[in-house]
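anyone seen this seq b4? input:
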Amino acid sequence: MAAGSSTGTGEVPTRSQTEANRKLKYISLAILVVQNASLILSIRYVRTLPGDRFFTTSAVVMAEVLKVTTCLLIILLQKRFNVKETACFLLDSVVFQYKDTLKLAVPSLIYTLQNNLQYVAISNLPAATFQVTYQLKILTTALFSVLMLRKSLSRVQWVSLLLLFAGVAIVQVQQEGNKEAAVADGSSQNYSVGVVAVVVSCLSSGFAGVYFERILKGSAASVWMRNVQLGVFGTALGLLGMWWNDGGAVARRGFLFGYTGMVWCVILNQAFGGLLVAVVVKYADNILKGFATSFSIIVSTVMSVYLFSFHVDLLFTAGAGLVIGAVYMYSLPKAPGAALPPGAASSSPAPQTLRTEGSGQMEAFLPKAPAASDTD
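predicted toks r here
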């Protein structure tokens, strides 16, 4: 009956569907750009304000708690607010299928480390510099994909990775002069610490994304259930990291010390931004995601000029331009003749799975999300 009704309406539903998909793509692009740029800019803003600073380790824990709580509410909604059925479902998914849950301990540890390192990096690097340098995650993800998943990259993608590395290197050379000026001004920021933090974050991001894709192939769990499983480990590991790094200070001043309205906005963006991106990113193809990343770099740079008096010179422009071009080139589809390894759905590795950055990160979950919603 459904098939008959669809054919009876002629071309109208097809055109309307095409128009709807086009609008969804534009909406997805806007959300990806805003979430990516706003998170980095807002973290930079709250970490450079005078006065008492909040504990970044507590912010990471709070974001995990909010994320898990939200996912539990969504699962409860999918079960039509049947508390008993939801509890049994969670018990079976998290406890009884403990082997599946334990698989997420490693990526959860990496994501917790990555989230803390992002605070360190953005606290010590200009937002625009961080945004450009953080695109090295594309390079690390690609290399781990080739090594661990035996994925093949096209020549254009290899060239784009070289251009990406060259662009980031040029930006670092440009920032050397600014680093010396910052030291002369008595700035408390440590550029070297920021660079090390962002590089380690890129390495962990690349490994976690590929590891995640590898262990979850064929998994039928929904995106929300995976967030709960990850969040259980993430909260525990985040609390351990907070105790190790800021335990004494948190005991004296309190878990919420230094929290302002802007800090809460950062935490909410971190907690819900990734989930929002996961919902809309399925409407965006690789090219659109490449555009989103490129636009995010431009937005971060322009806003940094106005918010933080960031100086853009010819060298930074050249390096950032190479990175933007490389990101777009890497997102282009492979030539029709290029073969993929068996079981590989795309030549482009999943950039970020669910944490991040920003980013989002939940690429490995996306094929499972529609199936989960269909069955519930």
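The two ends are 23 Å apart (CA to CA). DSSP finds 15 helices and no strands in the chain. kinda curious what u guys think
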